[in-house]
Design brief:
Helix 2 runs antiparallel to helix 9 and helix 7 packs antiparallel against helix 8. The chain contains 19 helices and no strands. The longest helix is centred in the middle third of the chain and has 38 residues.
Length: about 500
C-alpha cells in the first residue's frame, strides 16, 4: 500500500500536468478521440473472456502449497491464451478501421485518423504479450514490485510525451511513446518474474490435471458473462456520447474520467493489497473469520468511497475550471450523476474483490447479461432525451437493479454460507453517514464564493476535515473502526 500510494500520487500529478500540456497543444477533439478509441478497443478485450481472473484464482492454492509444477502448468496455459488474445485484438481491431465513421457522429478534421487508430490497436494488442507473468508476482503478495515498474515507466512516458507535444504538436509521436512504454513495462516485469521465480524458465512442464482444467473451464465460462458486463457497461459511455451527443462532449467527459480513474487507482490500492492475502485466508480460515475480515475491508471501502464521492462532487468543477478552463465543465446535474455512479461502483469493490479471490464467478454468471441489457436500453432511450445525463442515468439504474443486491447475495450465500441481512444493515448505515456528511460539507462550501484558487483551497480544507469528522462521530463505536485505528497505530509505531 505504501509503494502504491506514493506511486499513484506522483502518477496523478504528472498525469494532470500532461493533460494540461495536451489541451494547450491539441484540440478537445483529440481528447474525445483518445477516449473513443480506448473504449472501442476495450470492447475487443472481451476476447480475454475473464481468463486472467480465473487463472489467478487457480494460482492461490498451489502458491500456498509451494506446488511449483502446477504453477508452471498454469502459467504456460496463461501465456498461450494471452498471446492468442493479443493476436486477435491486432487482427480484429485492424479490421474495424474502415468502419470508424459508424462510432462518431461527425468525423473530425483530424489528419491521419486511421493511422492514429491503428497505433491504438497495436498498443492494446501488445499489452497482452508478456503481461501474464505480472499475475504471479501479484498472487505472491508482491504487488509493490509491479507498482515500482509501472509508475517509474509511467512518469518517464508522460515527461517524454509532454516534451514531444510541446515541440512538435505531433499526436502520432505522442502515441508511439505510449506504445513503447507499454511494451517496455511488460518485458521488464516478465524478466523480473523470471528472476524472482526461477522455475518459470524451466522447459519441462507437466500437463494440468483434469480436475484443475475442469475448474478453470467452469470459471472461465462464468467469467465470460462478467467480462461482457464490465466491458459493455463501463466502455460504452464514450461510444454512446460520441454517437448521440458528439466528439467534443467525449473530450469533456474524458477529463472527468481521468480524475475518476486516478481516484479509483488510489482507492484500489486497498483492495489490490489485500486480495492475495484474502486468497490465502480463504484456503485456510473458517467462514466466521472470512466474514470478520470482509466486514473490515467493506468498512474501509465505505469510508474511502464516501469521502472521495463528497470531495468529487464539491471540488471537481472548481478544479477543472482552474486546470483547463470553464469551457471544459459539465453542469452540476451531470456531476451529480457521475458521482452517484462512482459511489455505487466503489461500494461494490469489497464484494467483488472477495468474490474473485473466493472463485465465486459461477453463481452470478447471468447477472451481467441483465445489467448490460438494462444499461444499453435505458442509456440509449434517455441519452436521446437528456444527452450525457441520460447515458449516465442508464449506468446508475442498471447498477441499482442488478449489481447492488445480486453480488452481496452470492457472496453471503455461497461464500460465507449465511444471510446477507447484516450487509445491508451496514450499507444503510454507511450510506446515511455519507449522505449526511455530503449535505453538511456542500452547504458549508457553498458559502465560499466563485471558482478562484483561494476559494478552491478553502473548499479543499472543508472537504478534507468535515466528512472525516462526521464519519468518526458515526463510526467511533464500531468494531471495524477500532480495528482500523489499531492497525494505523501499529504502522505508525514501526
Amino acid at each position: 500500500m505504501k509503494f502504491a500510494t506514493v506511486g499513484q500520487i506522483l502518477g496523478i500529478l504528472i498525469g494532470f500536468v500532461s493533460r494540461k500540456v495536451f489541451v494547450m497543444c491539441l484540440s478537445a477533439e483529440y481528447l474525445g478521440l483518445n477516449g473513443l478509441f480506448s473504449n472501442i478497443l476495450s470492447m475487443l478485450a472481451l476476447a480475454e473472456l475473464g481468463v486472467g481472473s480465473a487463472i489467478v484464482y487457480s494460482l492461490y492454492k498451489p502458491i500456498a502449497q509451494e506446488n511449483t509444477e502446477e504453477i508452471k502448468s498454469l502459467m504456460r496455459l496463461y501465456k498461450q491464451i494471452y498471446t492468442a488474445v493479443g493476436v486477435f485484438i491486432l487482427i480484429a481491431g485492424s479490421a474495424l478501421t474502415p468502419f470508424l465513421h459508424l462510432f462518431i457522429r461527425e468525423l473530425p478534421n483530424i489528419p491521419n485518423i486511421r493511422q492514429i487508430y491503428f497505433i491504438y490497436v497495436v498498443n492494446s494488442a501488445i499489452s497482452y504479450f508478456f503481461t501474464y507473468k505480472r499475475s504471479i508476482i501479484i498472487a505472491n503478495q508482491k504487488w509493490y514490485v509491479v507498482t515500482m515498474y509501472h509508475y517509474s515507466l509511467y512518469f518517464c512516458m508522460n515527461v517524454a510525451q509532454m516534451f514531444v507535444l510541446w515541440l512538435t504538436r505531433d499526436f502520432i509521436l505522442f502515441l508511439l511513446i505510449q506504445t513503447a512504454s507499454t511494451f517496455a513495462e511488460n518485458v521488464l516485469l516478465s524478466r523480473k518474474a523470471d528472476s524472482l521465480y526461477a522455475y518459470l524458465r524451466d522447459k519441462v512442464i507437466q500437463p494440468l490435471s483434469l480436475d484443475v482444467k475442469n475448474e478453470i473451464k467452469k470459471n472461465v465460462f462464468a467469467m465470460i458473462f462478467h467480462k461482457i458486463g464490465s466491458v459493455v457497461v463501463f466502455s460504452t459511455d464514450n461510444i454512446l456520447i460520441s454517437k448521440l451527443v458528439g466528439l467534443t462532449a467525449v473530450g469533456i467527459y474524458s477529463n472527468y474520467m481521468l480524475i475518476r480513474v486516478g481516484v479509483n487507482t488510489i482507492t484500489s490500492i486497498v483492495f489490490q493489497s489485500v486480495s492475495a492475502s484474502f486468497g490465502n485466508l480463504n484456503a485456510l480460515a473458517s467462514d466466521e473469520k472470512k466474514i470478520e475480515v470482509f466486514q473490515i475491508i467493506n468498512f474501509a471501502g465505505a469510508w474511502i468511497f464516501g469521502f472521495c464521492s463528497i470531495c468529487f462532487f464539491v471540488l471537481v468543477n472548481p478544479f477543472i475550471s482552474l486546470w483547463l478552463g470553464d469551457e471544459y465543465l459539465f453542469p452540476i446535474t451531470t456531476v451529480f450523476l457521475f458521482v452517484t455512479s462512482f459511489y455505487l461502483t466503489g461500494m461494490r469493490q469489497a464484494c467483488l474483490t472477495v468474490r474473485d479471490v473466493m472463485g465465486l464467478f459461477w453463481y452470478d454468471r447471468y447477472k451481467p447479461v441483465l445489467e448490460v441489457l438494462i444499461n444499453l436500453i435505458v442509456s440509449v432511450i434517455l441519452g436521446q432525451i437528456w444527452g450525457v445525463n441520460g447515458i449516465l442515468a442508464g449506468t446508475v439504474i442498471s447498477t441499482l437493479t442488478t449489481c447492488f443486491w445480486i453480488e452481496p447475495y452470492v457472496l453471503y450465500k455461497y461464500g460465507f454460507h449465511c444471510p446477507m441481512s447484516e450487509y445491508f444493515v451496514k450499507y444503510s448505515m454507511y450510506f446515511t453517514a455519507t449522505f449526511l456528511a455530503a449535505i453538511i460539507t456542500t452547504l458549508i462550501c457553498n458559502i465560499i464564493p466563485d471558482y478562484g484558487i483561494k476559494a478552491f483551497f478553502g473548499k479543499l480544507v472543508v472537504c478534507g476535515v468535515m466528512p472525516n469528522l462526521i464519519f468518526i462521530g458515526c463510526y467511533r463505536n464500531t468494531l471495524e473502526f477500532k480495528y482500523i485505528i489499531s492497525v494505523i497505530r501499529m504502522l505508525l509505531s514501526r
